[in-house]
Structures are given as C-alpha cells and as structure tokens.
Design brief:
By secondary structure, the chain is an all-alpha fold. It contains 8 helices and no strands.
Length: 207
C-alpha cells in the first residue's frame, strides 16, 4: 500500500513540476497507478520464481530493489524515468506480496492460516489510510519528499534475511499422481471482484 497511495496527495504538485511535458495530465496519474498494473502482470512470474528458487531469498532481494526503485524519484529529473522506476516498484511489490502470502500458507494451516491472512488484509486496509495521510503531510515540504518512505524496505531486508525461516520444500507428487484441478470459476470470480475494486479505488484517488 505504500507504493499505491503514498504519492496521491502530491499529484497536483507533480503536474506543476512537469507542466512543460506533453500529456502531463495523463502521465502524472499513471505514475500512481502503474505499480498496480505491474503487480498484476508480474505476480504469476513471481510465484513461479519463488517455487523454483526460494521465498526468503526472493523476498530479501525484492525489498532491497524496492528501496532503490522506490526512492529513485528523489533524484530523477524526467517524468518518463520516474514512471520506469514506478514500474520497477510494481514488479518488486509483486514479489513481496507473493512471497509474504505464500509464506503464510507455508507456515500455518487451518484456522491459524485464516487468521493470519485476515490480519494481512486488515493491516493492508489500515495502511492505505495511514500512508495516504502521511503522504499528504510529507508532501507539504515538496512532492519528492514522500518517496523517502520507500527506503523503509532497506531496513526490512536484513530483518527478512535473519528472522524469516525458509520453509522446507514440499515433497513432489508421486509419478502418475494427479494434482487437484484448479477451481478456475472461483478464481475468475475473485479476479473480477479484485479488478473492479482496484479500478474504483484508483479512480477515486486520481480524481
């Protein structure tokens, strides 16, 4: 949520700063929404990567990359360069979200897993409100200032490397044993609800 709502309050100031850029009225709002697009695009690849490599390593690298890309607008001079950095933020967020949710599934099962997933959802919703207000407060000293908060990921990376336990790999299914089919209908319904909710969420912020 840090990448999603942090700069929403400073979008008008960004428009003023890049007023000479052609299409600024479209490009500046895109800097807010482009991470979400790249989360959607990159998340399936992140899931495949963490299954091939490991959750802990990918999470640690993604946190470091997030801090670098997230704070890049502090010194980037052009709007296209900022948009590229925001796209990288989205890719990093895809890895971070996928690793975090997968680790919850690895560590716990049953009611305890449900409790932690519910806690994750609750914290995400609260964080959206807190970061929106914090971005507005920091934005009073300049539109670049809120990007400083993305550096917090650099503090979390060593904690992830030290404190997170790498789960043991599940045993591969025996030869000839078929996995349960993926419930595509349920998945598509969830994806549709998520898509509509995301569109409404970002439209309200950008407008």
């Amino acid at each position: 949520m840090l990448g999603a709502v942090l700069i929403a309050p400073v979008l008008p100031r960004m428009r003023d700063a890049f007023a000479s850029v052609s299409g600024v009225d479209v490009l500046v709002p895109v800097t807010l929404t482009i991470p979400a697009l790249f989360i959607a695009v990159a998340a399936p690849f992140a899931g495949a990567l963490i299954d091939r490599v490991d959750r802990k390593g990918v999470l640690t690298v993604a946190l470091i990359a997030y801090a670098v890309a997230g704070t890049a607008p502090l010194y980037l001079a052009s709007l296209p360069a900022i948009m590229i950095s925001r796209a990288v933020v989205g890719v990093c967020e895809a890895a971070i979200i996928t690793c975090s949710t997968t680790l919850i599934g690895d560590y716990w099962s049953g009611a305890r897993r449900t409790r932690y997933l519910s806690l994750q959802t609750m914290v995400t919703a609260l964080a959206a409100t807190v970061f929106l207000a914090l971005g507005g407060a920091l934005g009073t000293s300049g539109w670049r200032t809120p990007f400083l908060l993305c550096g917090v990921a650099l503090l979390l990376a060593p904690l992830a490397a030290v404190l997170i336990r790498q789960p043991t790999r599940p045993a591969r299914p025996r030869s000839g044993r078929r996995l349960e089919p993926l419930p595509w209908r349920q998945m598509l319904r969830l994806c549709l609800v998520t898509l509509v909710g995301s569109v409404v969420f970002y439209v309200l912020i950008v407008l």
